[in-house]
Structure formats: C-alpha cells, structure tokens
Write a structure and sequence with these properties.
Layout: E1 3-12, E2 15-25, E3 30-34, H1 41-49, E4 56-61, E5 64-65, E6 76-79, H2 91-100, H3 110-123, H4 139-152, E7 157-161, H5 169-186, E8 189-194, H6 197-203, E9 206-211, E10 214-219, H7 221-226, H8 231-236, E11 241-248, E12 251-254, E13 257-260, E14 270-276, E15 281-284, E16 292-302, E17 305-312, E18 318-324, H9 325-331, E19 338-343, E20 347-350
Parallel strand pairs: 3-8, 3-9, 6-7, 7-8
Antiparallel strand pairs: 1-2, 1-4, 4-5, 9-10, 11-12, 11-14, 12-13, 14-20, 15-19, 16-17, 16-19, 17-18
Helix pairs in contact: 2-3, 2-4, 3-4
C-alpha cells in the first residue's frame, strides 16, 4: 500500500506543526520519521492515520484520496508509545478486540478469531501469555502485544508512534531488531516516529529527517548518514566536531590541515565550517605534516571503544575522537599527554554570508 503525502500543512494556533510536506512512501516500505521534539513528525503520523485533519493538502493510499475519510475506514493499525492495552482484558482478549467489534456481517467466527489471534501471538513469540493480564508482562512484552493487536485487523498501513520510547536501552535494542525481522516477514507498509537516530538508521528502509515542520532530507539510511543534505542533518545524526575553516578554490584549511571541498571551486577566502565525526578523527602519537597539536584531556573506555576529549592549541574547543581499544593501546597514548589529530573525512559548509559564489 503506497502512501502519498501531497503538500500537507497543519497549524495549532500560531505554531506551524507541518509545513508544506510532500512525500511518496512505497508499498511495503518501513519508513522512519526522525527529528527532535516539535519537528512535526508525530503530527504528520496522526494526519496519515486520520487522527488529525490537515489544514490543507491531501493524503492518498494507493492513489485513493483518504484525506476526509474517517480513521475507522482507512485500514490503519496504530501502535502507541505507552501500549494502550485494556488492563481488565487478558492478552488474548486485547489482541482479539479489533476483530470482535467489527460489524456482524464482517466479523469472523469465534474459531477464526481464536486461530488468528494465536497465530499472531506465535508471530510475536508470546503465545504462552494468552491468559495473562497486561500487568503481568514486561514493558517489551506489552509492546509486542500492542503490535499484535494492531496487526489483527489486517491493516493496509501500520503506524507506530515512538513504539519503544518507554523502554530501557537494552530492551529497545532487542525490540527494534525484532521489528525489522517481523517487517521482513509481513511486508506491510509501515511508518514509525522516533527521535532516536540509531533506531531510525538500524530499522528503516528509508529515513525522513524533519525539523520545524519541514523535511530536511529523505533517503536511504546510509545515504542520509554519509551524505547529509545540510548542517542540521549532519549535527542531528550522531556526534560531530565543528571546525572553523577557510575555503580557497575547492580546498578548506583548518590551520595546517587541508580538506578537499571540490563543491566550492571558485570560492576565494570564504569562511566555512568543517564537520567531522569522532570516528573520522585520526589521533597520532607524533607530529605529521598536516596535523594539529592537541592535549588529551579525557580518556573514556566504553567496552571495545575508547573515546577521547582533546583540546587543540589556542582554542577552547574540545575535539571528540574515538577508536578501537586495541588501537589506542598500540599508539601508547595517555590522558594528559600530547597527541596530533587530523580529519580523515569531513563535510564543509560555507557560512551564510559566503554562500553566494563570487563574480
């Protein structure tokens, strides 16, 4: 089931929640709407579901205009952050609920309902909980039951609003891998909202990065991470170091370090920012021709990874770097000691006043 979002706008008094958003989501695709709080991602999800009406624009499912269609007629399954399970019903009754309240002419028989519910519980690996109450389950188990309930009515579209937001980090990591495997089995068109960059990059087929109600970038997770469209996307998708640089005819300089910036051929002495992720900072025990001297202020060992905080000469800026623990040990680096750093991969953006290409 493809979803077309055509120039959708939504305001709440003076607040612009969704600002002229257009997207085409493919049949069977798992799309993440990613962004900070207030970016409009949840409002857009609710508009797709029919829980909110847009001020303007259209929503189409497989070419059919559903903008004015009641939520109950859209064939949407919705999974909320806080499960929304009925506390007085057991697990079986919760999953079966959407089937039991169908009009009599559309309602499956009791035997069909039982067969379908048990199949779904087996799919989410919780068939042994059928007679239990939600209060007897863990948070991760309750979220899987909520997902089974949403799938019971065979939705054309599955929508998930921060589905793992209320869970601890370990359970979240397990459930997002499980969701990816489940989606590969059922292939229902799915859209989920998250502010967790790692979650979006790991689970989805496609990432839509939103900010202030607008789409900043839309594409494959690897493309969005490796080739961010702008500074907001670069900073939002993971940790990043920011260096002040100057661009001359396609080359950016940070002190003695030269960075390739071919997209700015023809720019002369332009001020710029160079963004470098911590794993793209090479840390050396000895000076090289193109490197910056720094002092190692802090060494943090996190499992197999070492994270460093370094301060360069004549700068209050803290540079973050990370490397495998075995590499750190082999270099003989120590906290409080000297090091030399150089970016091995970067993205350069001109400052606003220097964006216009000179004559």
């Amino acid at each position: 089931m493809s979803i077309e979002i055509d120039r959708v706008n939504k305001r709440f008094n003076d607040f612009v929640a969704v600002d002229d958003v257009s997207l085409s989501l493919k049949d069977g695709e798992l799309t993440a709407l990613l962004g900070p709080s207030g970016s409009g991602k949840t409002t857009l999800l609710r508009i797709i579901a029919g829980l909110e009406q847009p001020d303007s624009g259209r929503i189409r499912f497989q070419g059919e205009d559903t903008t004015d269609m009641h939520v109950s007629d859209r064939g949407v399954g919705f999974v909320f952050q806080h499960y929304a399970l009925f506390k007085h019903m057991n697990v079986f009754e919760n999953v079966a609920y959407g089937l039991t309240v169908k009009p009599r002419s559309q309602r499956p028989s009791k035997e069909e309902i039982r067969r379908k519910v048990m199949h779904l519980l087996e799919m989410v690996q919780l068939d042994w909980t059928a007679d239990r109450l939600p209060s007897q389950l863990s948070g991760g188990q309750r979220q899987r039951i909520a997902l089974a309930r949403a799938l019971a009515v065979e939705p054309r579209v599955l929508l998930l609003d921060e589905p793992f937001g209320a869970l601890d980090a370990k359970v979240r990591a397990e459930l997002r891998r499980w969701l990816r495997r489940l989606h590969d089995d059922i292939h229902v068109t799915s859209v989920f909202v998250t502010h967790d960059q790692e979650e979006a990059l790991e689970v989805s087929d496609r990432v839509v990065v939103m900010n202030h109600g607008r789409v900043e970038q839309d594409g494959h997770p690897e493309t969005v991470y490796d080739h961010p469209a702008n500074e907001f996307v670069y900073q939002f998708l993971g940790n990043v170091n920011l260096f002040h640089a100057r661009v001359n005819d396609g080359v950016a300089r940070i002190g003695s370090v030269k960075l390739s910036a071919p997209e700015f051929d023809g720019h002369l002495d332009s001020q710029a920012f160079a963004y470098v992720r911590p794993h793209d900072i090479e840390v050396l025990p000895h000076r090289t021709e193109e490197s910056l001297h720094a002092e190692i202020e802090l060494v943090s060992v996190v499992g197999p990874t070492v994270r460093l905080e370094l301060k360069t000469d004549n700068s209050e800026q803290v540079v973050h770097a990370e490397m495998p623990k075995h590499q750190f040990k082999s270099l003989g680096l120590t906290q409080g000691g000297d090091a030399w750093i150089r970016p091995v991969n970067s993205r350069v953006f001109l400052r606003d006043e220097d964006i216009k290409r000179p004559d």
